[in-house]
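Anyone else keep sequences and structure tokens together like this?

Example one:
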Amino acid sequence: GSDLVDDECGVCGGDGIAEGACDCAGNVDLGCGCGEAGPSGCDEICGSDLELDECGVCGGDGPEMCWDGSYVCDTSNCPDAPDGWDGDACSMPDHSIHITSGGSVLYHSSTSIAGFQFDVDGTIVTGASGGDFGQCQSCALQTSDPPNPPSNTVVGYVFGSFPAGSGILTNLTVTIDTSAENICLQNVLISETGVAPGEINSCPKYWQLTCIPIP
């Protein structure tokens, strides 16, 4: 008579679990349990889906923003802020305007604004939205003059009054001119309510900040 018996997998006369396997289905244990995926992610931990950020940090949040709107992996590499400016629109001089490397236009004005216009040298402006001006119900932005092609000029119309304050005036979307060396605000005209155009202009030191090197 036969002396065959069922192996541990229930197979008559079988060899049982194969060498190196952890179960009858032939699965192996890669370190996270039988048949489970092995260590994964940049931290090589079971079940991890962490990835390296732009700075090479596993599961990191990526670059940090400097005072001028630029991003670095180590804040010690941020450019020096002139006169200790912290990058906050509230601490800008009165009646000044500044563009960050992220395209946000900051402003600080103790008087209401009736309209503005400026050029963003080194770019073609393809859009402007958000910011305090975007929340203004009686305001409108224009970045092109159809049927003319988009230019580098931004015009803000105020049908009433834009109140005094400070913060982000608007956020620009731009196409960078690869032949340019810097992005700069130029030809700035800002009208106070009841005051001639051009009355508000950036202080000289903030004109320096409006030029951002193009990588």
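And example two:
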Amino acid sequence: MKSTTSAIIVALFATAELAGCGPSSPDAGGAAGAAPSGTTTGAAGQGGSTTATGAMTSGPGSGGAATGGSSGETGGAAGSLLDAAVGDGSGGASPGGDGGGVGPALGGGNPNSMGLDRHDALYCGEWQKTTKPGDTIYLIKGGKVVWTHSLNTSGGDEYGDCTMTSNGHVLFNLKATGAQEIAPDLQSGKEGPIVWRYNEDSGTEVHAVQPIGLDKVLVMQNGSPAKLMLIDKTKGAVCTSNMPCVEKIWHPESVGGTHGMFRHVRMLANGNLLIPYLSQGKVVEYTQDWKIVWQYDSGGSPWAAVRLHNGNTLVSGNQGGWLREVSPDKQVVWSFEKGDAPFPIYVLQGAMRLSNGNTIINNWCGPLSVTQWPTTIQVFEVTPSKQVVWKVQQWQEPNLGPGSSTQLLDEPGTPEKPGELMR
């Protein structure tokens, strides 16, 4: 079934063309931080009108390309750490690199469109209380939903970290269950076999899951103690924290309530671990032997931290409504604040820096009354000059619900190779 599914998804995306990097920067501890990765070299494109979905709108331009090369991750160990962690031939980056050759995109898009077909994407979100039959992961191609995976209840569990890998499978978290990997049934357009699962410990929550190669996965389990685990999926189709499938385990600080400890935690291209402490207002980078090599005291509640190819780190501020690009020497070199948007900003969660320098931002609206949800923008794209060039307001057919995690499939890179996609 696995090979059949892969063949189907390759054929599906082959029919379509299914968004930055700035000047190179020194490693952590260097004398200077990188310049903002939002240096543009191209003129903004012209705006467009709403397309067939009727709910997808955008601002007046499509943004310009960004300049720049790439540099190594900050601090820590060499690529051999990640080579050992991956174990399936996908490898890691060597120091000073950007992860090596970047793989092809998994989909296509229509960059001149202001509608849902601008980007092929995988979309999921926390607390989709109005989505029927239940919380749903959406695969969108050519502006249409081509596959879904739904729970039986709306808002009873939470998606918040979803990734399609190069074999066409989808890896996702479930707050109250753990983590799962599904092989999408693209012929029927919904569901498919669950090929792997992690069952979380009692009294814990899982909000972050990252593929590390096709054979391993990084799982962040909130709880006391907190457990960050590198799991070898080849050891069994079902895993728990006390089984041999757990190859490595680390214990980040367990402070505050279980629900508010962590969201997006990531392994970097150099094998280090980047952890935003949601309840402590800080982002910390550790080596795999748990030495701190970089720390940014963000204040507020950092939801996601993304290491960019230029060595800077993109941090989202959750209820603070801000997104900051921070240099290795902890200077804010670019930011997007509530006042920069022409529409209300509520809770900024997942973010993705695109290869053209633009940034995708998820604007979660969970704190609002559900009667207000349809008035909100769920995800949007901004240029380095903070111009909104695309925005999604999709609450009917399909009802995407509040947005937490958006993976654009028209970006080059192998999703399971840490550091290739900036998300």
